[in-house]
Design goal:
Elements lengths: L1 E4 L4 H13 L4 E5 L19 E5 L5 H11 L3 E4 L6 H6 L2 H23 L3 H6 L1 E7 L24 H20 L3 E6 L1 E3 L8 H10 L4 E4 L5 E6 H14 L5 E4 L4 E3 H15 L12 E4 L14 H7 L7 H14 L1 H7 L2 H11 L5
Parallel strand pairs: 1-2, 1-4, 2-3, 4-5, 5-6, 6-10, 7-9, 8-12
Antiparallel strand pairs: 9-11
Helix pairs in contact: 1-8, 2-4, 4-6, 7-9, 9-11
The structure holds nicotinamide-adenine-dinucleotide and 2'deoxy-thymidine-5'-diphospho-alpha-D-glucose.
The site of nicotinamide-adenine-dinucleotide has 32 residues, from helix 1, strand 2, helix 4, strand 5 and strand 7.
């Protein structure tokens, strides 16, 4: 089996579902169930003996050691993290705790476990660390996209904590020989995305007749990748990636935020017309910019294509249509995540008009 951490979050839950459908190999899913963890995203696996869920912290060394000894996974895929830039600006403590200290504790436990494995299992073991393009900082317009050799220059507390975790992973390979793989991916979108992030926030706010808050001029550029493509990339890196290497993963899909918001509005206009008429775009509101907001990210994904034959399968047009459709078809999932704690966050970030 494999151990997946953070498998109840957005990408982790998509990965667990994709993994079991594609590989069928059992998954031990360790997730703390923070506000971002949601077992409803894994409802399709209820009663499926191939999925073992444990609520717990990657930083809980005795728990992780016990789970490794009991379940003897052949690989660890580490998704667990605090992942939202805006929350890291409000307070970075949890980001340091999970992304830095938690990754360190997980690496220590993994190393002890791996060192004691017998030869064939030891050679085959992998620790795959899921990271982000944000560690590279911000690109000037027209500058070449991030390659794996781009210098790290994280600008937010979130990206600094992820950069620290990437460095720890690298060091555990270099010093202890732990067979690690790191993936640095661009912005994901798709089903089960928590509505604090741009695309799901715009969908749920539009449908609730609330303002669509665009930070600053909305000209910031992100490189969007449909989440299933990311999951396929991780499976491929786990299967054939070279230990000690990093792989950039992206959608070849740079778009300014304001264009994303207009696309979401146009799809909603078509699929779920606004009560009273007019376009959802009328709800777009420019609000204060994110402090330290990175202007542009873009991933050069040629290494993973050259070495491992991975390319995104989904176009942005097909992926965003599927995503909007998914949110329209899953009002119960949306209602459940919009709990009291979610409303507290929206009020803290955007003020009472949006809460
Ligand atoms: P998410 O916030 O939706 O989910 C994170 C999950 O980790 C949650 O289920 C949460 O309960 C769990 N978790 C948090 N702290 C934990 C701890 N201490 N121990 C165990 N579990 C814990 O995040 P996501 O968007 O799914 O991102 C997953 C990973 O991918 C993160 O490492 C993130 O940095 C990285 N990443 C995300 C994106 C993106 O666009 N969302 C892009 C590139 C990389
Ligand atoms: O690049 C990969 C990263 O993508 C991941 O590492 C992070 O975990 C993930 O959260 C995401 O970070 P971003 O900050 O890019 O995602 P977010 O959805 O928060 O914002 C996307 C862009 O939209 C960003 O430029 C900020 C802007 N934005 C966001 C929100 C929530 C708005 O204009 N308004 C908003 O209300």
């Amino acid at each position: 089996m494999i151990l997946v951490t953070g498998g109840a979050g957005f990408i982790g839950s998509n990965f667990v579902l994709d993994w079991l459908a594609a590989e069928g190999e059992p998954v031990l899913n360790l997730d703390k169930l923070t506000y971002a963890g949601n077992l409803a995203s894994l409802a399709a696996l209820r009663g499926d003996a191939r999925h073992v869920f444990v609520q717990g912290d990657i930083g809980d060394a005795p728990l992780v050691a016990r789970l490794l000894a009991e379940h003897r996974p052949r690989a660890i895929v580490n998704f667990a993290a605090e992942s939202h830039v805006d929350r890291s600006i409000h307070g970075a403590g949890e980001f340091i705790q999970t992304n830095v200290v938690g990754t360190f504790k997980l690496l220590e436990a993994a190393t002890h476990y791996w060192q004691a494995l017998a030869a064939p299992e030891k050679g085959a073991f992998r620790f795959l660390h899921v990271s982000t393009d944000e560690v590279y900082g911000s690109l000037a317009p027209g500058a070449p996209a991030f390659t794996e050799d781009h210098a790290y220059a994280p600008n937010s507390p979130y990206s600094a904590s992820k950069a620290a975790s990437d460095h720890l992973v690298r060091a555990w390979h270099h010093t202890h020989g732990l067979p690690v793989l790191t993936t640095n991916c661009s912005n994901n979108y798709g089903p089960y995305h928590f509505p604090e992030k741009l695309i799901p926030l715009m969908i749920v706010n539009a449908l609730s007749a609330k303002p669509l808050p665009v930070y600053g001029d909305g000209r910031q550029v992100r490189d969007w990748l449909y989440v299933e493509d990311h999951c396929r990339a991780i499976r491929r890196v786990l299967e054939a990636g070279r230990p000690g290497e990093t792989y950039n993963v992206g959608g070849w899909n740079e778009k300014p935020n304001i264009e994303i918001v207009h696309t979401v509005c146009a799809l909603l206009d078509e699929l779920s017309p606004r009560a009273g008429g007019g376009s959802y775009a009328a709800q777009i509101t420019h609000v204060a910019d994110r402090p330290g907001h990175d202007r542009r990210y873009a991933i050069d994904a040629r290494k993973i294509e050259r070495e491992l034959g991975w390319r995104p399968a989904e176009t942005f047009e097909s992926g965003i249509r599927k995503t909007v459709r998914w949110y329209l078809d899953h009002p119960d999932w949306v209602a459940e995540v919009q709990s009291g704690a979610y409303r507290d966050w929206v009020a803290a970030q955007y003020g009472s008009a949006l809460a």
